[in-house]
Amino acid sequence: MSSQSLTRVCLIAAIALLLPIESLARSGMNTAHGVSQKSRRRATSSSPQEMLDLALYYYNNDDISGKAEQSFQQLLTSKYEQTPQYETAQFYLAAYYQRKFYLQLAKGGEKDWNALKQAAVEYRKYTDKFYKTGTHTWLNDSFFNLALVKLQLNENSAAIDELLKVKYAERLDSTVYIYQVVWSSKSQSVVDAYIPAARLAEYSLSVVQAKDYYFEKAVLQIQKWCQATATR
Questions:
Q1: Of 2, 35, 135, 176, which is most buried, counting CB atoms within 10 Å of its CB?
Q2: What does the pLDDT read at residue 1?
Q3: Which domains does the chain show, CATH number per domain?
């Protein structure tokens, strides 16, 4: 190989090592119905899919600075309302607020009840808009996560109503993807599985309606049940 060719190869290799390759890994909260892992460069996005990819990049890298929030909201305009990315963005904006509550706690912050309340608002926007339209991809995921939000807010009756809706909506959306029941830094809390929606709702109802119910115990019980169900 000539010295000129060798120099060119070395230059290409050096550039390749410097390129920032970042993965969209599933982590934390219920990233429903399996968003696939993707590697991408951080870049200014233009198409709806590129915009969604960037938003999910921030989301999956535990952003609570507002970058993920702003990126999802950019898709939630009338300009993109007829795209499939709009529906996904609505679900993940809700998931962002719910996840933010637990991420801030893990970082030593105070309980941000407003984040949970906003999560409830955004999950309801999804269920109201996409119960009769769209793909229903995140329908029961939204009902289930809304139930968890209501439980964390000590609104147990409202949570029970949402769990009942999971059962009723099974014909439209038969599974709920659970990565973790709620976000946690503990690896043993990972489920990473599609759980039958009606069965999940029934078990969760039994836990919530038990005499010895309290939130942290309920989350652990649901987590262990999901893990056992996933391995069958």
A1: 176
A2: 53
A3: 21-230 (1.25.40)
